[in-house]
Design brief:
The protein is mainly α and 254 residues long. It folds into two domains: 66 residues, Arc Repressor Mutant, subunit A; 138 residues, GntR ligand-binding domain-like (Four Helix Bundle (Hemerythrin (Met), subunit A)), CATH 1.20.120.530. The chain has nine helices and three strands. A hairpin with a 3-residue loop joins strand 2 and strand 3. Helix 4 crosses helix 6, helix 4 packs across helix 7 and helix 4 runs parallel beside helix 8.
Length: 254
Amino acid sequence: MTKYVSSTPPTLSERKQTQVATAVIRKRIRSAYLSGTRDKLSEKIYKVLKRDIIRGVHAPGQALTEKALARKYKSSRTPVREAALRLQEERLLRIVPNRGYFVSQITLQELNDVYEYRAAVECAAAELAARKAIDAALLQELTDWAEISYRTDSLESYMEFIESDTLFHVGIARLSRNQMLVRAVTEARSLMERIMYAAIDINYYGEVPTQEHRDIIKAIREHDPEAAQKRMYDHIVQSKRKVLRLTTPSSTRR
């Protein structure tokens, strides 16, 4: 018969050491869990608050408080604060110490800044896309997005158009296979979407740039970097002219 020998019982000191080690491990696990939960909630708050600023739920210049935002989006103040810091970096919010948050105004200077920024990053993206583009599936998606239009009597169709327009421009950046350009174009599109939603309030929808988009895609398909860059530049300049006309008293709004 095999004889089993029991191990020596742990001493009091060893038991205390084990308890302390277990408590430390549990604390770390809980801390990691809470941190992950907070990060997820912060990301959620960031996305919905950003969406609401872009769509005009929170009007330009409106004052916001952490307490009110936490109540509206059903969270604590910490995720709201973290989201606000990100949105300030994206020029959608302005944080004023001891006063709260303010939704950024859409000024004439900002309009010029957005279009200059777009011309710099999107023309570079179009040029690189024409040099590198080999993703046939993505090119077809861009072609489909370029054909999406809207009805002026349907807000839903206009929102779908804005989404497809963003997918088109970010898609070209994706074709460049340059992640820095993808991030830059995505940031620029957030500002452009805000401008497009703001135009709804004055019953201006603009013209659907279907042909301009087709010309850009054609240059990319033909691997013509110069043409792709020029057509993207012309497209952005045309858009800028249309939007800036709205800022003058004599604007003709359609």
